[in-house]
Amino acid sequence: MHLTQSLHRAVQQNPDRIATIFGDRVRTWRESADRIARLAGALRALGVAEGDRIALLAHNSDVFHEYMYAVWWTGGVVNPVNTRWSAREMVYSLQESDTRVLLVDDAFAPLVPEMRGLWDGIATVVHCGDGPAPEGMLSYEELIADHEPVEDARLGGDRLAGIFYTGGTTGFPKGVMLSHANILASSNSLVVSVQGSVRGGRTMYVAPMFHLAALGSWCTQTLVGGSHLFLPGFEPGAVLRGIVEQQPTSTLLVPAMIQMLVDHPSADEYDLSSIKRFSYGASPISETLLKRAMAVFPQAEFAQGYGMTEMAPGVASLAPEDHQHPRLLRAAGRAIAGVDVRVVDPEDNEVPRGTVGEIVARGDNAMLGYWNKPEETATALRGGWMHTGDAGYMDEDGYLYLVDRIKDMIVSGGENVYSAEVENALATYPAVATCAVIGVPDPDWGERVHAVVVLKLGHTATAEEIRAHCKTLIAGYKSPRSCDFVDAMPLSPAGKILKRDLRKPYWENTERSVN
Amino acid sequence: MHLTQSLHRAVQQNPDRIATIFGDRVRTWRESADRIARLAGALRALGVAEGDRIALLAHNSDVFHEYMYAVWWTGGVVNPVNTRWSAREMVYSLQESDTRVLLVDDAFAPLVPEMRGLWDGIATVVHCGDGPAPEGMLSYEELIADHEPVEDARLGGDRLAGIFYTGGTTGFPKGVMLSHANILASSNSLVVSVQGSVRGGRTMYVAPMFHLAALGSWCTQTLVGGSHLFLPGFEPGAVLRGIVEQQPTSTLLVPAMIQMLVDHPSADEYDLSSIKRFSYGASPISETLLKRAMAVFPQAEFAQGYGMTEMAPGVASLAPEDHQHPRLLRAAGRAIAGVDVRVVDPEDNEVPRGTVGEIVARGDNAMLGYWNKPEETATALRGGWMHTGDAGYMDEDGYLYLVDRIKDMIVSGGENVYSAEVENALATYPAVATCAVIGVPDPDWGERVHAVVVLKLGHTATAEEIRAHCKTLIAGYKSPRSCDFVDAMPLSPAGKILKRDLRKPYWENTERSVN
Predict the structure, then answer these.
(1) Is there a domain that residue A400 lies in?
(2) Widest CA span in chain B
């Protein structure tokens, strides 16, 4: 099946219900599909052929919805660009994937000359912002107005649907190739697995749409016939106002966003009761933060998704009913329907329950591979299993507990220390707003457990107090031996703390970044 | 993905929860999977190779569950036999599909000598009833006890998973070939589409498991991690007692069963409140009956499935929320997720909403084809769409309404009866000159198989004699339950019997001409 099938079904069943909302712009499924069919006609007229890559560089809006379905309608391949990258990184991803058509909004249009200077292959630029198109760009609205709707190519199955660039461990981004079947398998499985009474309704997207977490949620929402509400990005005040004004019934946030939301000084002045389903994921959450979020959204069912771009993105989910059991709040969930999950040792043998190893997964949602990277593909998918790079264990009921990234494990004095465990302990200290734990070189211990901490406004703490607090909860060798206090964490586009950046100053004069 | 994947997932996540219940026999997922792996080992030891067909001829029990998963575990193909057929018909289906291994329970073991007399290809018979195996049969329990568990072949995707025989329009049953992907697509889509708060729990199967309606429900139930409760068959008193004693949370019934249940004199003496989801399908239901059922099960959400074996079986569903709108109670539902549905004219052009035509459907669940019948396959799947043979129309919101059948199929007690097959049997009776078989409304069966006969000059016959004759050739449920003797048939200019005219007097006071 093809990804536009759910769009056709929505038009057949709910032609006059709302498909997309962006600010004052509200469109029904019938209107939306008509625009998509015209945009697809425009892309064909521009010479876009089956399998061609088309990029969008923009903040969240209803254009994402139209762009993705229109590209699939033509039989093309989406390549949504990471908006937090530098122009160089963006161009790298366009050039590597030979993406010659680019859509940009107002925020990114000024970058285009620089990008074109770096690579002359960007043949067509479509401006999807407000007002007239800048010099050298076509107007998105004119293209839609000037072209007749075309027939949907309905190409799907194992054909390439999108290339999604993720940060590469080797310094260059890797293009994850996902087929129509991959994305549909994940979307279907998430609906099948995450039981609960809330589906459809109106989903609010604040996490960036170029990320598979938001994109997967969006696919799922069309599948169950709900409406899409786009906010341009994450700003805590705007999100709180958006909930009150637009009454979304569900949303998806990453932990760093949740932190900012619950820390917002006037969070308790807003009526947030329209939210009935609160999904979170993309990075591990501390128990403390999760409990605070559950208090701020008492009317909402909570559901956690654990996954990765390479799994389109679903691997496991912690269902609403699991959130009733305090002991499960530290879990990342259980394998979703249709996905096999195991914890293995370095030789890929399954380890006993409770033993830490690498989490591996397989299913119809596992990526086709990395674009132009057969070796990395073979390594990541060795033995038919996607190697997540996450270290964790599985309990007797199949719940996964993440303890760290395999590569982020700290070896201190010969002991393995998983930073997530230390971070969980640290987060319970009243003065701590956000924290990250890394290994830094140490003459005595090889690596030393080091904490980077953002304090809550008006609070103070010392490294000694923090170590003393952690020692009441975890072993002394795991408790931070040193501590930096910073104003803010370096974050990835998905809101993940960039430990690489935290580690950098400590490892600058060393040849490797483990000791 | 392969159909045993959900079994592995259930074992990983719920090893000690109940998988199957049959009478006093209760087994956990761990126990059940162990027996399945041993039964698969036994089948391999018996020489069953990848792709081999294995049949089960039995009333409902937990053996169905073990048999199906064990056959798939070996990479084999299931062929569950219609228990209402005559020995001739059963053997036809085994011989045509070259099925050489047969499992039988106590009820059908006595038929085996006759079946072996009709075809000497039934190489291995396994007795899965109580007590010692009859002469010439192996013991199911001994096979399980004597063999070690083997590894799951994990063969799935587009490979053949089962051959499901349905009544054939040409007088012979046709084997519908369904792949793992077909059955999984339908199961997934049904869960995605039928929203509501009830999933998992304990499903009670009283409709025969060889039918795709029950089989699809069973697949779905493993997928969401619920338990299976098998009743040997449908007997209204036993079903009512079963609900009270075993507290199932959901069940699937065909309208003829629902009729008998709500008509049962002491239905209101039972506490039926454990049933939270009441699914029905396989033939259209009258509004009157549906409203009565909703009154008998006031705590239950109602969901209708419309489908056919060739679609594995899902085509459309009427969701619980649709049952809140009286005007929708006559609908068969809307296309399930991932399935395209249209109403077309004889040239396969889509007709406007509200216009009657043939309902056609396509999706990843559409059958591979009919076993050994490339021409019938090509006709049924022409243009890439499965032609259901049902006439109906679609409203502006995508709801389907069935009005008649394109072919002359009769649905009696949830079983498909093709008039051509009955007419073939009838025509062999010496006194019959011409005959036609139609479906007429019946309070017990939904539709009743009714014959219209012109006798040969100077011959006599009674309805009883004609029924008795037919029963020597075809199943009892296919044999006419009533008969009209007429002097001449109404004929078209081309000399074809006008069944429409025969049907008319019986359907005059009803709103539609299928029940």
Answers:
(1) no
(2) 72
